[in-house]
Amino acid sequence: MTPATPEIPVDLCGIRLRNPVILASGVLGVSRDLIARVAAAGAGAAIIKSVSLEPREGHRNPTVIAYEAGMLNAVGYANQGVEDAVREFEGVGDLPIPVFASAVGQDADEFARVAERLMGCGFAGLEVPLSCPHTPGYGTLAGHGTPEATERIARAVRNTTDRPVFVKLSPNVPAIGDLAVAALEGGADGISAVNTLGPGMVINVEARRPVLGFGVGGVSGPALRPVAVRCVFDVAVALREVDLEVPIIGVGGVAAGRDALEMIMAGASAVAVGTAVYQRGLGVFGTIARELADLCARLGIGSTAEVCGAALRHHKEPV
Amino acid sequence: MTMPDERPPAGVRPALPVMLRVVEVCRENDEMVTVYLARADEAEAAAMGLELAAFVPGRFFMVWLPGLDEKPYAVSSLDAERVGLTVQQRGPFSTAMGALRPGERVGLRGPFGRGFWGLQDHGDGGRVALIGGGCGTGVVAPMRELLPQAAVVQGSRTAGVVLRLPALDGQVVFTDDGTEGCRGFPTEWLAAQLRAGALDAVYTCGPEAMMVGVATLCREAGVPCQVCMERYMKCGIGVCGQCECDGRRVCVEGPVFTTEELAEMPSFGRRRRDKAGRIIVLDSCPSGSQAAPS
């Protein structure tokens, strides 16, 4: 029997989570049935795999590979397209955990069209990734990673739903804090930080060529974690400086309760988990929640909110 | 319950292709070839995540043709020197597999997934049936090594595409058109054997409509049956969700499922997902090949 998952309540813009461990977008979230499995495995919430206006087959395989410090992927936004996705996720609000939609587009108008269609399904909130590093026409390859584009796209999707909107940022920028501020100026309610790192490349020396079908792919897992923690920290600092304190979902390499607490101390209210599904199996969500509860008890921490951003007081301006 | 792929948190297990040299390409029939690859240095391969010794029938490898694509294939034979992949030439990838020449290199990752189990519980296999459909017969073939007395039954479209491997010696052949063996389907043989109480276990791989028939007969007869399913796969390691079937990840929780598990999978025999993840309704021809040509 799976041990009971502890209650570690978290509030994300009025969305109540039983614990702060969320399924990250891009992993498993292609169907209602899989999200129901993730819920049964103890997750506090889930974010679906990103949906585009038209169906996309994505890049040629290999699209996902693992190496000793993490995973590389260049899936290329393979997805069934918004019309099939609406059929798949109709009534998603009946699932036992809150589920976030994830909408992508090539420009602000397309983001808004996809978001509007999806949000009719009963999703609790919306995540908007502006940060994919490996899909031409989308994310950072389409220039969505600038403050101007971030604000413009955030504003466009903001008008499609009254549910909370989280903008997902790239770690591959010089000043992630500026992007977070731009997203909030566009009307976002929260920030997800971060998408995959890089892109990176793995070359097979016998074949003398990159392994991924697309050549390069985003790096996730343990290799990303310290970068992601720093990004969450930078976002939290930037938001405090402009008095815009909103929830941050920390994403990047979280595979254990200690990793989750680290993200929370950097300023995250919740964490999203993807690559760790490969490292520890589908049960990883409840496992991390239990480890987090045990660790908090051991450290005398009463609630995660109490230590959210605890490390920020050690912030120093660069010299 | 512990998930089959649950592991301790330490690090990330590599899953990178290891290049193996082609030593022989055998034409099996009008549509199928077997590509034999030389086994690499085991320690070096294991450092990249390839463990040929962990293969059991039903598990699969991701096969990489650099510059073209990477697809899942089962192994039809494995010995100390070489590994055999039997491929039906249908689309660009499998055609390129058949055009390989000795000395060329092919990337292999794996093995992945849950293979057939409980094989050692059946002695020499005298009360076991291995039922293959078309190229799926190559997937059940390596079980013959553990179960030398098991009956092998192959369903095929026509004489020109019947698979003949050394491990399939003495097989009973059914063809749709009656050009070899009996005209009809392996399910006819199976129904008679089950009625006679001659079987303790059935293992099968082939077109989904055939496997639905096999699984249904076995469930009705109360005989344990395991089915090796095919779905479009991308990552092979349980993260991308592409091969999802009713909430199960076929690449890690399958591809082998029991009839009890299949009873909770209404999509089995009815629906699969295409490369983009759209749901496709399967046809129901018992010998039809529903998978997209690869």
Protein architecture, described:
The complex is a heterodimer of chains A (319) and B (294). Chain A has 319 residues and is an alpha/beta fold. In chain A, 32% of the residues lie in helices and 18% in strands. Chain A has helices at 32-40, 82-89, 108-119, 147-158, 176-185, 225-241, 257-266, 276-280, 284-299, 304-307, and strands at 10-12, 15-17, 21-23, 45-47, 64-67, 70-73, 99-102, 125-129, 165-169, 190-193, 197-200, 203-204, 209-210, 217-220, 248-251, 270-273. In chain A, the strands form four sheets. An eight-stranded parallel barrel of chain A has the order 3-4-7-8-9-10-15-16, surrounded by seven helices. A four-stranded antiparallel sheet of chain A has the order 5-6-14-11, with no helix packed on it. In chain A, helix 5 (176-185) packs across helix 6 and helix 7 (257-266) crosses helix 9 (284-299). In chain B, helix 4 (186-195) runs parallel beside helix 5. Chain B contains seven helices and 18 strands. In chain B, a hairpin with a 2-residue loop joins strand 14 (244-245) and strand 15 (248-249). Chain B is 17% helix and 29% strand. Chain B is of the alpha/beta class and 294 residues long. The model of chain B is unreliable at 285-293 (pLDDT under 50). The two termini of chain B are 36 Å apart. Chains A and B meet through helix 1, strand 5, strand 6 and helix 8 of A and strand 4 and strand 7 of B.
